[in-house]
Amino acid sequence: MGQIKAGNTRAGRWQRQPGPEPYHCFLPAPLPPIPPLELTESLQLAQDRATKALARLDGMAGLLPNPGLILYAYIRKEAVLSSQIEGTQSSLSDLLLHESKQAPGVPASDVKEVSNYVAAMEHGLKRLKGGFPLSLRLIGEIHAMLMKGARGGDKQPGEFRASQNWVGGTRPGNAVYVPPPPTRYCPRWVRWKNLSMASRSRRPRSSKRAWLTPNSRAFTPSSTATAASDVS
To answer: In this structure, which long-range contacts are made by residues 144-152, counting pairs with CB atoms below 8 Å and at least 24 apart in sequence?
Structure first.
């Protein structure tokens, strides 16, 4: 069995699932971390560097006549890189050709997935800027747009999965990574959502996001080898 099983860690634990072919799934530890994250000297220095870098970026953005152009390029670059994890061959040039109604050099289905990613991200940002709270409903909306007309578009887009999925391999028993089963991950999504919306925190925003992001990916990572669609 090719699964990654590093034992119980601060990030979570592996739990054996029964069945004709038993397998192990990963259960992320509840948030916030217990015991609380201790900001050592090295972590504090890293935090300071990150804060200064963000401040420089914010300052440079204020000097631009149209900061939206940076966001435009960033969203598309992120869409291309994230979609390549799923096996798409589309490049940034292919995406821009598609948006300008020209023929890309890769299959249209690949560019469609990247285009969906852009549309989904822009929809989420627009909703948040409009005052809509970060919620499971919004995550569902984003996922529905991501899957529209793409691979897995017939697997309940916009809905939380009801069956086990996996990454790598042909089934959970020989998969590289298996996220939590449906019965275990919804409460974790709720806890993650509540923590991400918490307005009062002693931690800097960049620190909080540092452990919110990988934790969310551990719940329902997307993969072309998954058995059902994910909200991720």
So the answer is: 145/116, 145/119, 145/120, 146/116, 146/117, 146/120, 147/116, 147/229, 148/116, 149/112, 149/116, 150/109, 150/112, 150/113, 150/116, 151/86, 151/109, 151/113, 151/224, 152/226, 152/229
Please name the residues in contact with 193: beta carbons below 8 A apart, sequence gap of 6 or more. Answer: 134, 135, 136
Domain range summary for the chain, segments of one domain joined by +: 1-63+165-232
**In the numeric block, which tokens belong to residue 48?**
């300071």
Residue 28, classed as helix, strand or coil, is strand
Residue 25, H or E segment? strand 23-28
How confident is the chain (232 residues) per 10-residue block, as mean pLDDT?
57 86 86 76 89 88 82 86 80 84 80 88 91 86 85 75 83 89 76 67 62 50 36 34
Task: Output the six-digit token pair for 200.
Answer: 């009062």
Q: In Å, how far are 31, 58, 65, 112 from 83, measured between CA atoms?
A: 28, 27, 30, 10
Token pair of 34, please? 């217990």
Structure token pair of residue 133: 């709270």
The closest alpha carbon to 193, from 138, 114, 117, belongs to 138
pTM over 0.70: no
